[in-house]
Amino acid sequence: MNSADLKSLQEPIKEKYRRDPASAIITLKAEGKVGEGISCKVETGRVLVEAGLHPATGGTGMLACSGDMLLEALVACAGVTLSAVATAIGVNIKSGLVKAEGDLDFKGTLGVSKEVSVGFKTIRLLFDLETDATTEQIASLSKLTERYCVVYQTLVKGVGVETKYQTIN
C-alpha cells in the first residue's frame, strides 16, 4: 500500500467522523473465561490464548503471561501505527523490528512488600529500522507514531478503569 492508497482508504472514514463525530466512538471488547487451575482463556479474534501465572509467581511458563501480552499489544499497535504513518508520509521502511521491554518487581505482585508497587515500573519501546529516511523524517515518524498509537497513548496517559463484580446464579 502506498500513501495515496492509504489516504483513499481512510478519507471516507475521516469524512464520516467529521460529519457525525459520535460515529467515531467505538467500544472495543475483550473477554476471557476463567479456566482450570490458575488460568484465563482469552479470545483474540484469531486464536484462543490461555494466560496463567508468570514463572516468577509460581507459573510453569507454559501459559501466556498477561504482562507479556500487554507488551505484545504495545508492540503490535506501535508496529501497525509506524507502518501506517510511514506510508502516509512517504517514508520507505525496508524492514523493521519493534521491541518492548518492561521491568517488574514481583515482591509487589506477590505481596511480599507493601512498599513495592504492583505493575511495570518502566517500559521501553525500541524500534530497529532499515530505512533511507533522513533524521528529520525519523523524528516525524517517531512523533506521529507516538501520537497515534492507541496502546502507547493509553499507557503514557493512563486511563480510569471501572471494575464491577457480579455473581451468576
Description:
- By secondary structure, the protein is α+β, with helices and mostly antiparallel strands.
- It contains 5 helices and 6 strands, in the order H-E-E-E-E-H-E-H-E-H-H.
- The chain has helices at residues 3-19, 66-89, 106-109, 135-148, 150-157, and strands at 32-34, 39-43, 48-52, 64-65, 93-104, 120-131.
- A 4-stranded mixed beta sheet has the order 1-2-3-4.
- Helix 1 (3-19) packs across helix 2 (66-89).
- The longest helix has 24 residues, at 66-89.
- The protein is globular and about 50 Å long.
Give a concise summary.
The protein has 169 residues and is α+β, with helices and mostly antiparallel strands.
- Percentage of β-strand residues: 15-25%
The gross shape turns out to be globular
The amount of helix comes to 25-40%
Question: Major beta sheet, specifics?
Answer: 4 strands, mixed
Query: Roughly how many Å apart are the termini?
Result: 51 Å
Instruction: Provide the low-confidence segments as ranges.
Output: none
Number of strands: 6
SS content category: alpha+beta
Widest β-sheet, arrangement of strands = 1-2-3-4
Taking all Cα atoms into account, the compactness measure Rg is 20 Å
Average pLDDT for all residues? 90
Number of helices: 5
Give me the strand/helix succession: HEEEEHEHEHH
